[in-house]
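## retry 2 of 3
previous attempt timed out at serialization; input unchanged, resubmitting
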Amino acid sequence: MGTYLPPALRTNEEVAQAAGVTAAWISERTGVLRRHTALPAQATSDLAAHAVRMACVAAGVTAGQLDLLVCASSSPDEVSPATACRVQAHVGASRACAFDVTAACSGWLFATRVAHDWLRVESGVRYAAVVGAEALSRLTDPSDRATAVLLADGAAAAILGPVPAGGGFHGFRLGSDGTGAHHVVIPAGGSRRPASAETLAEGGHRVHMDGRAVRDFVTETLPVLVEDELVRHGLTIDQIDAVVAHQPNPRLLRHLGEKIGIRPGRLIVTGDRTGNIGAASAPYALATAAAEGLLKSGSKVLLCVFGAGLTWGSSLLTWTGATALSNAPLAGRF
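## retry succeeded, writing output
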């Protein structure tokens, strides 16, 4: 695995004034302490490419050995082509088939499911890169406290390949409910409301989020995902070595961890240092657990994601001793 956070930092003090709140309000309500922002010349594909390169180094493979490159993002470089194609060109993955998977903050696990199944059925295909990357600061209204204090930029990638028997992913459970799509949406810039002076003036190209509805969705969904995976695999929560989830709000995540009964040190919380980096959140947390040495060969990892759409997913992963490289100081765990 590999991660990349852009070098520009934005503290709560910097964010608070435009959002009409205080730095203390941000930390107390969300648990976010800082977030990273892409440089003016950086797009989502640039962040993703950095993460893919680092993941390749950690895995001991070259970009030229990749057979598949899947990118998950809610903030693509352009509407078309696929951001994965930009990443492919950046890293030199000339033999890879490259495409995007869009499932908002759940996107990396959805993309991982696609790559996992592709590797299992395609003859001669050996390695896949799956990257979640976001430049959400470009799509956030600085005056909207529901989004400006949370959303940020970053990328995290995994290299998938052959693992010993009993290792790797033990199935996936993915789902969606389109009746809740309006809770988190970028309403303009697509085919329904193409870009115009009117859509620009009304902020239609920014993320619009019903914070209360999203909180309720996360609160209801995470415990169900955890319980379903435990029942499906005949495990108890104490047999799970690490719970890796999307990082919507560190304070909410910690609260739910306590409610579910996750033992201290086993819920990976990285959002306090990164903010909500969308599709990169879950893989960044997984990479952090690996880089900190929390995961040993044979460790059981429970992955749970949820996002706009509404979308959600889960999987049980048996870690096989791989490594992770990061360009930034690692966050902590709860």
